[in-house]
Amino acid sequence: MPFVLPDELQQKQLALREFMDAEIVPIAEEKDRKGPLSYSENIELFKKLVPLGYIRAFNPKDVGGLDTTYLERAVMAEELGRAWGALVVTLDTHAGVIEMIARFGTKEHKKKWAEPGTRGEIIGSDMVSEPSGGSDQTQFKTTAILNGDHYIVNGTKMWVTNAVQADVGILTAVTDPEAYAADPRKGVISLIVDRKESPWKVRDIPFVGCRSGNTGYVEFENLKVPKENLLHNADEGYKHQLLARTWFRINIAAMGVGGMQACLEESIAYAKKRVAFGKPIAGFQLVQELISDMAMDTDILRLLVYRASCLLDKGIRSDIEQAMSKVFCGEAAVRVSHKAIQVFGARGLTTDEGYKLERFYRDSIMGGIGEGTTQILKLLIGRRLTGIQAFI
Ligand SMILES: Cc1cc2nc3c(=O)[nH]c(=O)nc-3n(C[C@H](O)[C@H](O)[C@H](O)COP(=O)(O)OP(=O)(O)OC[C@H]3O[C@@H](n4cnc5c(N)ncnc54)[C@H](O)[C@@H]3O)c2cc1C
Prior knowledge:
By secondary structure, this protein is α+β, with helices and mostly antiparallel strands. It is built from eleven helices and ten strands. The chain folds into three domains: about 5-120, Orthogonal Bundle (Butyryl-Coa Dehydrogenase, subunit A, domain 1), CATH 1.10.540.10; about 125-235, Beta Barrel (Butyryl-CoA Dehydrogenase, subunit A, domain 2), CATH 2.40.110; about 240-385, Butyryl-CoA Dehydrogenase, subunit A, domain 3. It has a four-stranded mixed β-sheet. The chain is globular, with a radius of gyration of 21 Å. The chain binds flavin-adenine dinucleotide.
């Protein structure tokens, strides 16, 4: 595992940082404050980022992707996260959905969704969680029952990133309620739902953070989905979902590294210019303690993320390492953004003079919930270490 990134990746990281500082950082603050971006604003940003490798990094070459390493993807998420965390959530959720279609879909699926998705021309969403089941995936109520050449879908999905605007979604649903009741790893399929052929009902759920993103409460009432849109059959659905989760977790942690890095940089710059009692506050030992703590948390998370990514690149089992990076992120990102606000004093709590710490603080709270809560992931780690299941 590299403690220093390979030269080529370091150069790429520098180039990304320069681009973000020039093109994304200046617009993030104002746009995020206004709430969910419009469909065309999202597509415009996708198109801006695709030439740098975003979205394409996730996808295999046959659909126009770059198939880059997980380490490189992590560095990319870190740099975008340093600029605008909400955009990482929107963009990488889309990229992950398109990746699943590109890797597991048929030739027709790839042509119809993975190719335009890789070019950033459409928006994707991943429809898994339900009002009755977030952590507890034995409680899915959404069903997709085959009827002739269509599945008939009924149910509700909740907290679905991008669903308000998405052109395409991957929907996880129970197709064999009996098999699912006997074993929740069975009887579940994934369907590709295309908004044009199967329009779903959706409203936005406002969140405390990631305000420029949109989050759907999605309702399906006798929605017809063509049977050829089956992505994962009842034996594969659960397995493939788990596979996707592994990377999504590291990705959120990588975005956290970027947010923490931004908090650290902002705090150092502010502490050097803010004067109290006749000298810059950076000269006070207790302010330096805040800054040192932030730097250590950021570095620890970065190392956890790089380790988990490198293990994935080598094909080595790394569920514990993935979970550790996400758990640490969920707690450390809140700690670091809170400390940054402390360095700024009252200016950390407001956007009035253009400071942005409050955004990083609001966004950081999301990290302990999406893609497996901190508690659930600690239980996964505990189960591997002790061999004892403590979920129920
Ligand atoms: C920013 C964000 C983006 C998201 N994007 C998507 C998306 O695109 N698609 C999608 O399908 N979903 C998405 N989600 C939903 C997310 O996956 C769920 O919120 C998550 O799985 C937790 O489910 P829940 O919110 O229902 O909480 P619950 O499962 O109800 O948990 C509530 C609390 O109970 C704890 N808990 C539950 N069970 C146990 C247990 N056995 N032992 C100990 N503690 C337990 C949890 O840790 C938590 O603290 C997103 C969520 C967020 C915050």
